[in-house]
Each structure stands twice: as structure tokens, then as C-alpha cells.
């Protein structure tokens, strides 16, 4: 009886199992518009906090954060449970209503910027910047720069679990007294 070597089968099987495992653990981020988030905070009986990812199309670090941080299964699951997630183009053209004011695009330099992005980032246009708002759309904090999954999740939990109401950031992270 002749036997055949199936040396390709083990790597193939490994890849198939890896693909199925990754697909089953993948959590898709449900990005919504600003208007949808504002509506949900106003109408939900138990509203969530709002998270805004301020990005631009040309920002490489924004794309890296999308891929590495927001697609991380643990980050995606926590954020979906605790926040309405808004992706906002800092150079977008559509007007935004926030707290009785209309924010618009401002042409400036080669591209321009959106007044809402500038307001959220407290005048410091830096991409990416992540913004945390409470359930009533009040500013908790802007966090500028790329964040890896673990440090990002620590920040998201600080606000998402209301730890910020009882502990300042240094006490929460154990940096107090250092």
C-alpha cells in the first residue's frame, strides 16, 4: 500500500484554525455619527458616555490606532458596552450642533479644520485625539496622540467605570507620591 505525505496539511490546518479563531473573537466597532450619539444620549433611558475619535484621512497614526487599538477584541468589547463611539473627521465639511452652537468647517492653509474638532481639542489640533464625554455630553478629557491597546483601555475604564469621580488619574494609576 502506498502512502502519501501530506506535509502541507498541518500548516494548512493551523492556518484554518487560526482564521476561524480570529474571526470568532473579532469584535467589530460600531462607529456612529455625532448626530446619532447626541440623539441616543437624549433619548436612551440609560445613556452611555460618548467617545469621539478625531482623525484625518492623511493621518498615519490615526490609521494605526484604528487597526491596533480599536480593533483589539478587548478594547472593542469594552467600548461597545460602555460608550457610543463616534468617528469624527477633523477636516470634515458638515456642520455640527453641540450645546446650542453650530460648528462649521474653516478653510485654512491647504486643508482647513472643523470648529468642532478645535473646540473638542481645546484649540490644540493634533491627530489622532480621542475625546471622552459623559452621558450629558460634557467634556471629561481630550487625550492627544496614538494610544496602544492596554494604556487606552486603562483610560477608557477610568472614565467608563466612573472611577474619575472618586480618584484622580495619578491615584488611579498608582503614580501618586512618585
Structural summary, described in words:
By secondary structure, this protein is α/β, with parallel strands linked by helices. The chain has one domain: Glutaredoxin (3-Layer(aba) Sandwich), CATH 3.40.30.10. Helix content is 40%, strand content 21%. It has seven helices and nine strands. The strands form three sheets. It has a five-stranded mixed β-sheet with strand order 1-3-2-8-9. It has a two-stranded antiparallel sheet with strand order 4-5. It has a two-stranded antiparallel sheet with strand order 6-7. Strand 4 (96-98) and strand 5 form a beta hairpin. Helix 4 (73-82) runs parallel beside helix 6 (149-160). The chain starts with 8 loop residues before the first helix and ends in a 5-residue tail after the last helix.
